[in-house]
Structures are given as structure tokens and as C-alpha cells.
Design brief:
The chain has about 130 residues and is mainly beta. The chain is built from no helices and eleven strands. Strands 2, 4, 5, 6, 9, 10 and 11 form a seven-stranded mixed sheet that branches. The chain is globular and about 40 Å long.
Length: about 130
């Protein structure tokens, strides 16, 4: 079965870094786009970054450009989100999601993603 498991969240001070991992199973990353989303308390879930299934093109929401990097290790079937220069506004539960989209592009629209992990919390506070 398709399965995604996030890990790597925690408590960090402003300016710190975290690397989130999304371990996948039950499908090939060659045919699924992977997205990272986050949901802060009292807010809707928003797209953070995604990586396409074929060309591995990447997309980032404006608020994280230059700070976050998404990458994939196909051999390990794991997708990472490196988060640098973290700010309190980045505090949220972070989710990875998979979209059966064998394309050279991806999008940060949550309704396009069929499979979701359970989330890993990230808290940025001094």
C-alpha cells in the first residue's frame, strides 16, 4: 500500500535549521510528485514545496524561497525538506503528500495530492 511517514520535526530557535524526511513505500517516485505542506494553528493547510516525478523540477511558495530546499533520494525512496533560517512564522505541522502525476511539473494545490502522511510538528521559538 502507499505509505508516507514524516520525521525530523522538533523545537528550534529562530535562525536554526531542520531537515524533514518523508519515507515512502508502495509506489515509485518516478511516477509521483511529492509535496510538502504545512498547517499552523488556526490556519488552513498551505503548500510549501513540491518536486515533480520526471524532471525533478521544484516549486517553492514565496515565503520559503531561498531558505528551504526539497530533494529526493530515489534509492532510499525518501524525500527531504531542508529548512534553514527558520522563523516563528514557520511553526506548523508539516505533511508530505504524493500525487500520481507522471509529469515534468508539480503544483502546490493540496487537492491534487491523493496520499498524505500523518505530519511532523515544527516549532520555532526562543
Amino acid at each position: 500500500q502507499v505509505q508516507l511517514v514524516e520525521s525530523g520535526g522538533g523545537l528550534v530557535q529562530p535562525g536554526g535549521s531542520l531537515r524533514l524526511s518523508c519515507a515512502t513505500s508502495g509506489f515509485s517516485l518516478n511516477y509521483y510528485a511529492i509535496g510538502w505542506f504545512r498547517q499552523a494553528p488556526g490556519k488552513e493547510r498551505e503548500g510549501v514545496s513540491c518536486i515533480s516525478s520526471s524532471d525533478r523540477d521544484t516549486v517553492y511558495t514565496d515565503s520559503v524561497k531561498g531558505r528551504f530546499t526539497i530533494s529526493t533520494d530515489n534509492a532510499k525512496k525518501t524525500v527531504y525538506l531542508q529548512m534553514n533560517s527558520l522563523q516563528p512564522e514557520d511553526t506548523a505541522v508539516y505533511y508530505c503528500a504524493a500525487s500520481p502525476n507522471p509529469s515534468s511539473w508539480c503544483a502546490l494545490r493540496r487537492y491534487e495530492y491523493d496520499y498524505w502522511g500523518q505530519g511532523t510538528p515544527v516549532t520555532v521559538s526562543s
